[in-house]
Design a protein that fits this description.
This protein is an all-alpha fold. The protein has eight helices and no strands. The chain starts with a helix and ends with a helix.
Length: 222
């Protein structure tokens, strides 16, 4: 058994998972949105919430990687349909954030992001779809479906997928938990500009995800 070749293959698989998922999860780009939606939280509560989001993201990515294809096949749902539905949710979320920023309705925003339970929005919408959205889920499902399968249980492949998801979760926790430092460096005006740009990009990302799914569905009609 050549351990060097095994380690090289494991490193390539880990790099593939990180390079495919990290740009889509994009914890750096999502940190301004997270900070805006939790602006009235204390730093300790925000860090605890970011940890909860990181844990949710980890299990969501691992579940999508290992059993995503089985769940979709059980319900008879295809990946393009997931992309269309998820794209609509992302568009709706981005448009709501963009519209609230333009209207300057602070009372509505405060009522929305300051529930009695600070973890009320930890899964939806902060984890899904703002952090791990339909694009990330579809990529994770695709990676799991195309992972090399050997006879028996591929323990190394399982370990690599778990390590990759854990590294992504750590990056989410660091970017979200210390997002207030970014706000302190940019100031109120800078954060407002970044928030508006990020909200607009979120709408564009949703349109792109929607179009990818719609295009795949239109091909099947031919």
């Amino acid at each position: 058994m050549d351990w060097r070749s095994i380690l090289m293959e494991a490193a390539k698989s880990l790099f593939l998972i990180l390079s495919a998922l990290f740009p889509i999860v994009d914890p750096l780009g999502g940190s301004p949105i997270f900070l805006t939606m939790t602006r009235d939280y204390s730093p300790s509560t925000r860090r605890a919430l970011s940890l909860r989001i990181a844990i949710n993201s980890f299990f969501l990515l691992v579940g999508s990687y290992f059993i995503g294809t089985h769940i979709l096949s059980f319900f008879g749902i295809s990946l393009p349909v997931v992309q269309v539905g998820g794209g609509l949710i992302v568009i709706s979320t981005g448009w709501a954030l963009l519209k609230q920023g333009n209207d300057g309705d602070q009372k509505t925003m405060k009522k929305r992001i300051e529930p009695k339970d600070p973890f009320h929005n930890a899964f939806y919408p902060l984890t899904l779809p703002l952090t791990v959205g339909p694009g990330s889920i579809s990529v994770a499902i695709t990676l799991g479906a195309n992972a090399p399968h050997h006879q028996g249980i591929n323990l190394l492949g399982i370990l690599i997928a778990i390590i990759g998801s854990a590294l992504l979760a750590v990056s989410i926790f660091l970017c979200y938990g210390f997002a207030h430092r970014l706000a302190g460096a940019l100031g109120a005006t800078g954060m407002t500009v970044i928030m508006q740009l990020t909200s607009f990009l979120l709408v564009c990302i949703g349109v792109q995800i929607l179009w990818n799914g719609a295009r795949a569905l239109l091909v099947t009609l031919r």
